[in-house]
Amino acid sequence: MTETPTVLITGASSGIGAAYAERFARRGHDLVLVARNKARLEALSARLHEETGVTVDILQADVTNSDELAVVETRLRDDHRIGILVNNAGASLGGTFADQAANDVAQLIALNATAVARLASAVAPRFIKAGSGAIVNVSSVVGLAPEFGMSVYGATKAFVTFLSQGLSLELGPKGIYVQAVLPAATRTELWELVGIDVNTLPAVMEVGELVDAALAGFDRREGVTIPPLHDPAQWEAYHAARQTMIPGFAQVRAAERYRTAQ
Ligand SMILES: NC(=O)c1ccc[n+]([C@@H]2O[C@H](COP(=O)([O-])OP(=O)(O)OC[C@H]3O[C@@H](n4cnc5c(N)ncnc54)[C@H](OP(=O)(O)O)[C@@H]3O)[C@@H](O)[C@H]2O)c1
Q: Closest Cα partner for 42 from 29, 57, 28, 53?
């Protein structure tokens, strides 16, 4: 793998993905930018090449379309220059669960969960062989908070965080770094796309601040980076509380409270 690996970023045509593209270009990484909007990708590619001199390829793909996703998977499998995958493409869904059409729910899961796992799966064997590589998965604090009332979106993000933590345990010893990034509300088009005026939210982070913080976590090789969480002890306490349960899961008998009269 080259010293400055190429970075493949999904959802690079706007918002967080476009900011990642800009930051990695400024760090001297060549890029492969993936999204559906070709005109936007071309404009970003031309600007970043002009400003930084790096090579920026674009791959127009809808990652919920299995044929188009396969093209991205093939690129990840075959292009040995790619050493960092940023799994960022994602969307939310407006309304309550009862209002959401089943097809829209399935589409969201295909985008936010299935594509993330498939792209990680495509690149992992090559990274294992190389003994290096990084996978960054853009998740969300919503995946920690069913209270926010965004059940399907939050469930996809809980999946992304869990997948990242599991892959970190599996692939970390093989030299691969896996990071989950959990933004809270960030000023991007995601909100407008689900009919919410971002300016009505109580606190919104600017996208540059979010990505710079995520990259600070990346540089420290953090497994889970939560840019808006000011007190890291809260995450550590949450993690520790979960871990205390694990040794108790292996049991022959059900817990006393579930044993009905037999
Ligand atoms: N903004 C927030 O408050 C916030 C908070 C937590 C987490 N996040 C996460 O951050 C990530 C980036 O979102 P964002 O906030 O930057 O929103 P955004 O500006 O709407 O960007 C989403 C990106 O995903 C791409 N995308 C959407 N559907 C796609 C598809 N089917 N195939 C390929 N690309 C697709 C979009 O490009 P095209 O339309 O050109 O395909 C766009 O580049 C998402 O995973 C989101 O869940 C955002």
A: 57
CA of 90 from ligand 1 middle (Å) equals 4
Tokens 């999204």 correspond to 35
203 Cβ contact partners less than 8 Å away, ≥ 6 residues apart: 184, 185
Is residue 153 annotated as part of the catalytic site, yes or no?
Answer: yes
Ligand 1 binding pocket includes 186 (Cβ within 6 Å):
yes
- For 6-232, CATH gives 3.40.50.720
Scanning 100-143, the segments in alpha helix (DSSP H) are 102-109, 115-130
For the chain, list the strands marked E by DSSP. Answer: 6-10, 31-35, 56-60, 82-87, 134-138, 177-181, 224-225
- Give the containing element (helix H, strand E) for 164: helix 151-171
Domain ranges of the chain: 6-232
Sequence length of the chain is 262
Would you give the distance in Å from CA 165 to the centre of its chain?
A: 12
pTM equals 0.97
Can you tell me whether residue 6 is helix, strand or coil?
strand
Question: pLDDT averaged over consecutive 10-residue blocks of the chain (262 residues)?
Answer: 86 98 98 98 98 98 98 98 98 96 98 98 98 98 97 98 98 98 97 92 97 98 98 97 96 95 66
